[in-house]
Amino acid sequence: MRNPLLHNTFKCGGLASGKKLKVGEGKDKILLNKGKNMETKLKKILVIEDDPDELVSLTQILRRAGYITIGVPTGEEGLEKFKEEKPDLVILDVMLPGIDGWEVLRRIKSGIRSRKVPVIMLTGKSEDEDKIRGYEFGADFYVTKPYNIHKLLPIIRGIITGK
What does the pLDDT read at residue 41? Predict the structure, then answer.
C-alpha cells in the first residue's frame, strides 16, 4: 500500500484542467487562481510531526494551498529529507521520538547553507522558556498548539515570500 504522505503526485486545484503534476519532473511553474492568475514557482515545505493525524492533516492543507509537501514523523527522517529535498521551509514539532525538534533545529541552523531555510516551530510546548529557546536556536517563528490554520497559512505565506 502506498504511503499518502510520501506519494509524490498532487492535484493542484488552480489548474483549469485539474490534471495531476509529478513533483520533480521540471514542472515547477503553474498558474494559481486566487483572484488573479500569477505564475509562481512551487515552494516545498518539510513537515516534521510525530502525530500521524496532525501530519496528514497539515500536509493535505498545505497541498491544497499550493505547496509541495514532504511529511515525516521523526527527527532522523526529517534531517534525511531536509538534505535530500532541500525544502523552502520547515515546520517542526519539538516533541519527536529519537532526535527531538530542538536538536533538528540546531543542526539545520548550524549549516552554512541550511541556516537560511526558515523554520516554524509548531509545538505544544507553550512556556515562555520554550519560545525563548526556540528563537535562540534560530527558529523564525514559534506557533503553539492548538493553532488556527487560518492564522498559520498567512505566516507561512509571509515567510516564504519574504513579506
Answer: 76
Can you list the domains of the chain with their CATH numbers?
Answer: 42-161 (3.40.50.2300)
Q: What share of the chain is helix, strand, coil (3-state, %, to 5)?
A: 35, 25, 40
* Stretches in the chain below the pLDDT threshold 70: 1-40
Per-residue pLDDT at 112: 86
Which string of b and e fits 87-120 if b means at least 16 CB within 10 Å? bbbbbbbbebeebbbbbbbebbbeeeebeebbbb
DSSP code per residue over 30-96 = EEEEESEEEEEEPPEEEEE-S-HHHHHHHHHHHHHTT-EEEEESSHHHHHHHHHHH--SEEEE-S--
| Whole-model pTM over 0.90 | no
Determine how many CB atoms are found less than 10 A away from the CB of residue 21.
Answer: 17
Q: What is the pLDDT of residue 31?
A: 35
Rounded distance, CA 65 to CA 63, Å? 5
d(CA 106, CA 134): 9
Average pLDDT over the chain, rounded to an integer: 80
